[in-house]
Design brief:
2 copies of one chain form a homodimer. By secondary structure, chain A is of the alpha/beta class. The first copy, chain A, contains 14 helices and 23 strands. Chain A has helices spanning about 120-125, 130-135, 135-145, 180-190, 210-215, 240-255, 275-290, 325-335, 350-360, 395-400, 410-425, 450-465, 480-485, 500-515; strands at about 10-15, 20-25, 30-40, 40-45, 45-50, 55-60, 65-70, 75, 90-95, 115-120, 145-150, 155, 170, 195-200, 220-225, 230, 260-265, 295-300, 320-325, 365-370, 375, 385-390, 430. In chain A, helix 6 (about 240-255) runs parallel beside helix 7, helix 8 runs antiparallel to helix 9 (about 350-360) and helix 11 (about 410-425) packs parallel to helix 14.
Chain lengths: ~550, ~550
């Protein structure tokens, strides 16, 4: 890297002398102060460098609260805050990064060994916390999964959220257990032989509590995202923004011992620069791997059917380890349920499942009726374990109006077929919490906005989003606490058919791990033979 | 290609029976008619296919004028009109595409042999036409250049324009000589052993006379360009837009025997799809080459310092033949003139010239003060003849407020140094008309808008554009005919120092063609050794 604005840590960090370094990027401000609000109110001026980073070192104990004061006027929490105990609008908390780790023997997980279990911290356990997940690690170990994937844990508005409305990418959601809670979970998971993947959002910020615009040119009006202003990854001053998210990734992977990142909607990271942010991030992570000897995995959620993101650098790729592939889900789901509304109109035939197995991208240059354009490129040499597949996940369940799980839509036998298709495929399988025992509770969309106007916008947005599914009846209210409560796992696993289903999943995972014929990950390790519409696939 | 909406010709074409096929893309219209306005007014209904292409076949003689009627209301010229005799707002003209070619022995030009001469048809010759260029072919042959590059000849508003305000990409500017005039020029150039490169604009349309929006979703609001709405290359219905420009490229390269395209500001072609439009275009042109046996060259003007556009497909590239490289100009210009205002603030030292020769991209990942970001990627294996360099061109001359040529800014010796740097480099050299004899006339910015409001917007835009150059004095008025008149070449080549300079250019070009040491185009064919700020380069 040629410029010191890259790899500049921001936030509050204790140095070797036990003092706390505060650093914040605010290139257009004439004056920035740090204001300690608790326990002893006091304001300190910060010094600016050439690239707009302001810093000061103070003798401050952990637990202190602070805000930055911009140009003597605006009081704002730290954009790189680790802890927001009061809310997304309240003061930031100085947190010690010390933690006693026990996972020195853990060196990460290989991509080919991944069996991912996606979970939402708030609704996974009756405790609604990281501690609640720790209490289930034995269960997950017995199930056989090799990695948990946490939906975003960054601080979001209120107490209930999927996580994609996060306003503080560096902070750990306070009512989940905060910084110490997450570190304890990662440590315990590693001791149980389970990797931890974290879902991170680098394409937008939540609508409430995001004050980045007050600090600097974090956003650009050159591009639009479905969620508002696009982050500035390629215009003037973009290095400050890129550094912000690079530091974020390194915080999780290094300081928190996280094994991999699942990056949300990478197609909405608009970057036309010669050095794409994904490539830069991968290079930074490779440097970390070399330094620590620990394997780290980068997975993109992406809707472009473009192998550039996962191709190696010598093929002009960004070299990410893997990508999500929704089309596998759509193909299986639409055949099993018969649904062909909305985006399912591009699927629904056995040939789509056949293509999802053989070519990975169902749309690899052919015309998509739903998208009204030719879509995608071919997968040629990419091994199967560059693609994460699922027949259930948070989106495909929760983005149904009623949050209905596949288990409530199709027969028991169809459900078993879907599980086998996923778990015995040469792809990386991902399960959604509860599917392993046929959970019947829905997974609804829920928020907890303090601002009623915003809650209404969310309600309206959901209605519009589902307009084309032509649903008739009452819409669940995302803001109502019942949407959250109804989505918590029941853990009714003792009785049938749940117990049988659980045993079946255990067996499939065991089969996957032990059966030699299921170990192939290369492009030629599988032959797919379809028989037209006969619903038979060999 | 998997979908018939690709490679669908649009416009008016005579078929084998001598009837005229009219085809137009208007996917959201309920009804489209073609209205013959001359010689015999009559209206004919058109039939629509599944992808929004409307067509009808009529027994119509060349010379007829026509418009399309959209939904029975709007009368609009043909977006793929070949000829707009009255103006960008008038009816389109049916033109025969027959032409008696004499260039059967011409098979195109190799990239390594290019010595390009950029010219503007209106101001190059006293005739202001293609015919005027034909009259100068002997001169150009003696100069030794191997290709002329025509600034855009698409139909623009009024009679005077650089060409980048074109509203009819398929039409040939009427007062230049129209379709027949251009074909005669290409034919004559080929007989003189000179290739013809055409400057085409695929990133925006001019502000006046562009009715594409009435026909269909040609534009998107997902991205912004400096010139208004971005063309829709990657959203729903984009195949109709992509087809439009593919057909345009093929029209020039096939029907008009053009040898190559110089594509304007390719960085403003926003395309995030897996199959980038540049790649698709290259594939279409390769198919044409195979079919015709004639070599075609695609050159991008691009400001991204990203080799992806010119890398081969196996390296994830779009496989264009070459790109313009402004930095070479900026490095040489700023050292010779001492100018370090505006974008020249990133240049001005000998080390920049040194880097421009050795690394091609002066900004290859390092921090640009002017752009306020790290910029560019490294050129590794790309041969030198993938880069077009110049020390003068239409932009670098005409986008100075007073249109001053380098010859009026620096000493005679400095001018000769600049010429040698360009013509003896292993890059593809490009000259700007008149520089070969040290033309003193300026090349100003000029327009001829019918709409006075638009003329005022252009005036204001120029003032703002040059604000940061801190120019003091009167601004030339682009709309005033004197801006055009003053820009016409003087052709004062008989007397010194012009005659000496011309002889010098001839000698340099001759040297380039004959001297073995100057033939290397590979990355290791040249060693560059700088000596700090001593203004010496070996």
């Amino acid at each position: 890297m040629s410029h010191h604005s890259l790899y500049q840590r921001t936030g509050a960090f204790y140095n070797q002398n036990g003092d706390c370094d505060f650093v914040v990027w605010a290139p257009f401000r004439k004056k920035v102060d740090v204001c300690i609000t608790h326990p002893q109110p006091q304001t300190w001026p910060m010094q600016q460098d050439d690239f707009g980073y302001w810093s000061v070192t103070l003798p401050i104990a952990p637990g202190a609260r602070y805000v930055f004061i911009l140009d003597g006027e605006l009081q704002r929490p730290d954009p790189a805050s680790l802890s927001q105990p009061d809310s997304v609008h309240g003061a930031s908390e100085v947190v010690s990064r010390d933690f006693e780790w026990h996972d020195a023997d853990w060196a990460g997980i290989e991509k080919r060994d991944l069996v991912i279990y996606e979970l939402h911290t708030g609704t996974f356990s009756p405790e609604h916390t990281f501690e609640g997940i720790i209490n289930k690690l034995d269960y997950l170990q017995q199930l056989g999964i090799t990695a948990i994937e946490l939906m975003p844990v960054n601080q979001f508005p209120g107490k209930r959220n999927w996580g994609y409305d996060g306003a503080y990418p560096f902070a750990v959601q306070h009512n989940y257990g905060g910084v110490q809670g997450l570190k304890r979970l990662v440590d315990a998971a590693h001791l149980a032989g389970i990797a931890v993947i974290l879902d991170v959002v680098y394409n937008h910020l939540g609508p409430d509590g995001n004050y980045l615009n007050d600090f600097g040119p974090y956003f650009t009006d050159k591009y639009k995202t479905p969620w508002g202003a696009a982050l500035n990854y390629d215009s003037a001053w973009c290095d400050g923004v890129r550094n912000y998210y690079l530091q974020n990734a390194l915080q999780w992977l290094d300081e928190f011992h996280i094994d991999g990142l699942r990056m949300d909607a990478v197609h909405a990271i608009w970057d036309f620069s010669a050095h794409h942010f994904m490539q830069q991030l991968k290079e930074a992570v490779q440097a970390l791997e070399q330094q620590t000897g620990s394997k780290k995995i980068l997975i993109a959620e992406i809707d472009l059917n473009n192998t550039r993101y996962i191709n190696p650098a010598e093929k002009g790729g960004y070299n990410l380890d893997a990508q999500w592939i929704d089309e596998f889900h759509h193909a299986v789901h639409s055949v099993l349920t018969g649904e062909v509304n909305g985006y399912y109109e591009d699927f629904g035939k056995m040939l789509h499942i056949e293509k999802a197995f053989r070519d990975t991208y169902v749309y690899n240059g052919n015309y998509s009726v739903h998208r009204k354009k030719n879509f995608g490129s071919s997968v040629v040499e990419n091994p199967y374990d560059q693609f994460v597949v699922f027949t259930q996940n948070h989106d495909q369940t929760g983005n149904r109006l009623m949050g209905d799980r596949l288990g409530t839509l199709v027969s028991y036998e169809a459900l078993k077929l879907a599980a086998a298709a996923t778990l015995l495929s040469p792809y990386i399988p991902l399960l959604f919490m509860g599917e392993e025992y046929g959970e019947k509770n829905p997974f609804l969309f829920f928020v907890d906005h303090e601002n009623e106007q915003l809650a209404e916008i969310v309600r309206k947005g959901r209605r519009e989003e589902f307009a084309y599914f032509k649903f008739e009846g009452d819409f669940p209210d995302p803001q109502d606490v019942s949407s959250f409560d109804r989505s918590v796992l029941s853990w009714n696993i003792q009785e049938n058919p749940a117990a049988t289903m659980l045993a079946y999943y255990q067996t499939l995972i065991q089969l996957r791990k032990t059966h030699t014929a299921l170990q192939g990950r290369g492009r030629n390790s599988m032959q797919v033979q379809g028989f037209g519409d006969s619903k038979l696939l060999v």
